[in-house]
Design goal:
By secondary structure, the protein is α/β, with parallel strands linked by helices. It has 13 helices and eleven strands. β7, α8 and β8 form a beta-alpha-beta unit.
């Protein structure tokens, strides 16, 4: 399972639930569309003609609204639009509209989808594992796995994920040095996180994996966290791999390990946390498609089946590569659901270490 996770998952995104708001929508062709709250009324019956004996067919409406509980222009929004564009070419008789609504840290959009009476696959949510974190932090009271109809994993982020780093002039040469110092002075060493983000839960996973206690402070965005680390205000931090390697090359950072179950093909000299004896630090970010809680399973399976062509599409691959993300292999609904369940379990263990449970 760990090997499968390393292929499909990663943590290049900081899944912040920082408050901001706004509604916008465009179709797969780039035209302006109504906001998320009004698009549902524009749906009409029938679209692509079903093939004989093809089983469940989706889409069956002229319009499919893809609600993204994230701000326009971000990584999650961009990925949603890549998927919408692909669907538009595959099902040209249907308009796929992406609507952004980050009101209430995305919870308004989540509730719009969860409670939608349109259970035919014409209203979907495209979001990330921030919805799992929101449940653990109390920002959202409903569960992705219990209160929505899960469809599929939409794409994986950078396969290199996060690396645990110290400043270049730090006395800590290895992960063993760092954990020994933490154990020698419990509650003294400091790391920086962004509350509600994967980085915060990585800190919790580290506490659970090492049996240590250290301080966590909200250091804001990754850019701000890097500044704090290099300025001597943090003892260590979880930094996205691409940034970490750049700073290591200049001598400003030292990488102690990568939070992946296997060594990265891009950075084969960086040891994993697992091989250093610290299991359970492989928290990864997923992009997820889900529908209303009452949507039939066969509709969810039909939506998931579109990912086979999506994974093979050259335009999709190029667009994701430009974002430094990937969907390397097709994963069916059952397998992707298992990935989400396993990831959620790791987040739960980290949440407990952080005192959320």
């Amino acid at each position: 399972m760990k090997k499968t996770l390393s292929v499909i998952l990663a943590a290049a995104i900081t899944l912040s639930l920082a408050a901001c708001s706004g509604n916008s929508g465009t179709t797969a062709s780039g035209e302006t569309a109504p906001a998320a709250t009004s698009a549902a009324g524009a749906k009409e019956d029938t679209s692509a003609s079903p093939a004989p004996d093809a089983g469940p067919v989706w889409p069956t409406t002229k319009t499919v609204e893809i609600i993204c509980p994230a701000s326009a222009g971000g990584l999650t929004d961009s990925a949603a639009r890549i998927w919408a564009n692909y669907l538009g070419t595959r099902f040209p008789d249907t308009s796929f509209i992406v609507n952004n609504d980050n009101t209430g840290n995305g919870t308004v959009a989540m509730e719009t989808v969860r409670n939608s009476p349109d259970t035919d696959g014409s209203v979907l949510m495209f979001y990330n594992t921030g919805i799992l974190l929101a449940e653990y932090t109390g920002a959202y009271k409903h569960s992705l796995l219990n209160d929505f109809q899960f469809c599929t994993v939409a794409y994986s982020t950078s396969p290199d994920g996060f690396m645990l780093c110290v400043a270049g002039d730090s006395s800590f040469q290895t992960m063993e040095d760092l954990t020994a110092a933490i154990k020698a002075s419990p509650g003294t060493l400091v790391t920086g996180v962004q509350n509600g983000s994967t980085r915060q839960f990585l800190a919790g996973a580290m506490k659970a994996a090492t049996g240590t206690d250290f301080k966590t402070v909200d250091s804001g965005s990754e850019a701000d966290t890097i500044t704090a680390l290099l300025g001597g205000n943090l003892d260590f931090a979880f930094i996205q791999a691409g940034n970490a390697v750049q700073y290591q090359e200049t001598g400003d950072m030292r990488i102690l390990g990568i939070c992946q179950p296997e060594r990265s093909e891009n950075y084969p000299d960086v040891p994993t946390m697992d091989e250093q004896g610290f299991d359970g630090m492989n928290l990864n970010a997923l992009q997820i498609v889900a529908g209303p809680r009452d949507m039939p399973v066969d509709v969810a399976e039909a939506i998931a089946a579109t990912m086979e062509g999506y994974a093979q599409d050259e335009t999709v691959r190029n667009a994701l590569a430009n974002m430094k993300v990937a969907y390397p292999d097709y994963v069916d609904r059952d397998a992707s659901l298992k990935l989400v369940e396993d990831t959620n379990q790791l987040f739960g263990e980290a949440a407990e270490a952080l005192g959320y449970q």
